[in-house]
Structures are given as C-alpha cells and as structure tokens.
Amino acid sequence: MKAVGIRVTGRVQGVSYRAWTRQEARGLGLAGWVRNAEDGSVRAHVEGPEDAVDQLLSRLRTGPAFAQVREVAATPAEPQGLSGFEIHRG
C-alpha cells in the first residue's frame, strides 16, 4: 500500500482535470480524493497498490487534453483507509 499527497501546477483548473483524475484513479483501482486549491493548483490524496499509484502519477504529468501541466509534486502520506475516489469541492 502506497499513499501520497499530490500538488499539480500549471493550467489545471477549468480544464476537467479533477474529473479526468477521478476517472483515471478509479480505472486503476485507487482510493482518495482530488480538489481545486485556492492558489490555482489541484491537490489530491491517492492510496493503493504502489504500481497503480506510480502509474497515476505518470499520467497526471500529461493530464486531459486542455491541461498544461507544469509540475506534479508527490509527498509520502499516511494511508487513510479510504474506499472509492471522489472530487472534493474547495
């Protein structure tokens, strides 16, 4: 089990980045959440099998069609025992 806190910067709000992230994470069988941050970044908490988390981190660097990702920063986090992957507001 691997858990990470993620901060994605660039043009990542208003381009369906959160919905795309939820779809990708669910497809990989990951749990967690994603939300827009006030500073224009997107934040997430992701947990699951190490290889699946690593695959998502790789995909986040590209993002959906209209996103322009500058950086994906991941920091180790404590697993929260979440089930499912949701979009959090604010």
Automatic annotation (TrEMBL):
Q: What is its EC number?
A: 3.6.1.7
Q: Which Gene3D superfamilies match?
A: 3.30.70.100
Q: Enzyme group, top EC level? A: hydrolase
Its UniProt entry gives the catalysed reaction(s) as:
an acyl phosphate + H2O = a carboxylate + phosphate + H(+)
Q: Name one GO molecular function term.
A: acylphosphatase activity
Entry keywords, A to Z? Hydrolase
Domain (Acylphosphatase-like): residue spans on this chain? 3-89
- Protein family (similarity comment): Belongs to the acylphosphatase family.
For this entry, the protein name equals: acylphosphatase
Q: Which organism is it from?
A: Roseisalinus antarcticus
